[in-house]
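Shipment paperwork, digital attachment
Item: protein structure file
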Amino acid sequence: MQSSSASPERIIDPVTGFSYPAPWIAACRDDAGLGLVRAGLAVLTSSGTVLRRGYTTGTTAAASCKAAILSLKEETTEVSVLTPAGIRVCIPVEAARGVASCMKYPGDYPGDVTAGICFLAECTPAGEGITLYPGEGIGRFTRDTPRNRKGDPAISTPALSAILNAVQEGLEVTGLPGASIHLRIPEGAAVARGTLNPKLGIEGGISVLGTTGLVEPWDDHLTETVMERVRTTHRVVLTTGRTGLRYARLLFPDYEAVLAGAQLKAALGEARGPVILCGLPALILKFLDPEILSRTGCETIEEFSTRPEFRARMLLAFKKGKEKYPGLRVVIVNRDGDILGDSG
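Attachment content:
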């Protein structure tokens, strides 16, 4: 996955820091899409396909709150918001006389249950400072947690920071000394029933979240079980963790990527077609060869991977994997996305 030195262009994802390989860039025929990739608003897969990122609930809330302030001076149809990833985005809104609405944009993520829901913000000038009132449709914690107290609104720290920053920008543009913002999501309570919030002890609405402010164009929280997904697809790539899941999706966009974790053996038994096992080396190599660290003097695969003999032992693990699972292809990557080994 390393870019060719002859490549006329290098594209690094501003969100993750991943350097897209030259063959992926060359395979893309969508110049506008590549522009979005450069800006961090989309991802590029190995097939050259561009998938657009969406906006999180936190980014959407920030846009509606800023629009409400700006509309005290004039009608507003678009606002600029700085995401927690440091990427500034322009978001369509409808705002006039201190009331603003913003629809949540899902990008190319079809499973986003919050796609298209409306965020409403109402702003009134205040003497000084910012006061945010989370209202209808925003979930609240029903019990104390290590980070939240019972009754607190389900707004994450990065999302809250993005909202307050957007409000402050609005105040600076309008020249107002302060503002009170009432934020609500009318559909929030109904939509929340299809999320994990009830299991997390959050009731009354959805969570306002966003570590980066952008939504990846795939689902990390599918409701189907691992085995059900493996059984119902004919091209599956299995992985063991979130990092492996990301690179599996980028490398093999035509496959169904499934995070099997410790259920690799059972998942392989359920597979009905071509299977690729892709991810970081530790769990995968230990799965293929439980004795891979025997007589190496190393405690972990990470430590062993720095040794000259690592590649030979990795290839031996591939061979043992082929003996157990003849149709299995194994692709090992590091945390930067570089391919360390491919059984082919």
